[in-house]
Design brief:
The structure is a single chain. By secondary structure, the protein is α+β, with helices and mostly antiparallel strands. 38% of the residues lie in helices and 26% in strands. Strands 1, 2, 3, 4 and 5 form a 5-stranded antiparallel β-sheet that branches. Strand 2 and strand 3 (37-42) form a beta hairpin. The protein is globular, with a radius of gyration of 15 Å.
Length: 128
């Protein structure tokens, strides 16, 4: 039987009006310490967001915020100070509670054989 590894994930959400607590899932971030894995998969479904929230959203700003998640996950210099932290610290920072237009769900644990395949499966189930 293949070895299973503990992972944690959170769903990336766009919350157009924080006070209403309504959101649209736009991505997933997944961390697996055993596989040295921290990645996000996200999309910006502009037509769905406009139908959901009207025209008041700045799509360029949302795109930049989602790109910041990706850059921090990659740990490259463009991820800034946070991008230079250890994987676990980056994941905790990215999934910290915040009240902005881009938020994450609470974190959830699971077991996987392949973190990348699990990220794709969760993305398909929770976002697409």
């Amino acid at each position: 039987m293949p070895e299973k590894f503990l992972f944690e994930y959170a769903v990336l959400r766009v919350v157009p009006r924080v006070e209403r607590e309504e959101f649209l899932n736009v991505g997933v971030i997944l961390y697996c310490r055993a596989q040295s894995f921290l990645q996000t998969r996200c999309t910006l479904p502009e037509a769905r967001l406009h139908a959901f929230a009207g025209t008041g959203l700045d799509m360029d700003e949302l795109r930049q915020r989602l790109q910041a998640f990706e850059q921090i996950c990659r740990g490259k210099p463009e991820g800034g100070t946070i991008g230079r932290l250890a994987l676990a610290e980056r994941f905790r920072w990215l999934t910290a509670t915040r009240s902005t237009v881009v938020q994450t769900s609470p974190t959830h644990p699971g077991l996987c054989e392949d973190a990348a395949a699990t990220l794709e499966r969760l993305y398909a189930q929770l976002v697409e």
